[in-house]
Amino acid sequence: MSRGRRRGHGEDSVYQDGDRWRGAISLGYGPDGRRIRKKVSGRTKAEVLEKLRELRKQLDAGMPAPDGKLTVGAFLDRWLRHNLPGHVADSTLDDYADMVRLHLAPALGRKVLSKLTVADVDALWAAKREQGYSPNSIRIMRAVLRKALGQAEREGLVSRNVAALSTPPRIGQPEGRALTREQAQRLLAELRGHDFDALVTLMLAFGLRRGEALGLHWSALDWEAGTLGVTHAVKRVKVRDGRSGRRTRLVVSELKTRRSRRTLYLTPELVEILREHRARQAKRRMALGAAWQDHGLIFPSRVGTPMDPDNFSHTFSRLCRRAGLGHWHPHELRHSGASLMLAQGTPLHVVSEVLGHSSIAITKDVYGHLVEGEKRAAARSMTEALLGP
Question: Which residues form a coiled coil (predicted)?
Answer without folding.
Answer: none
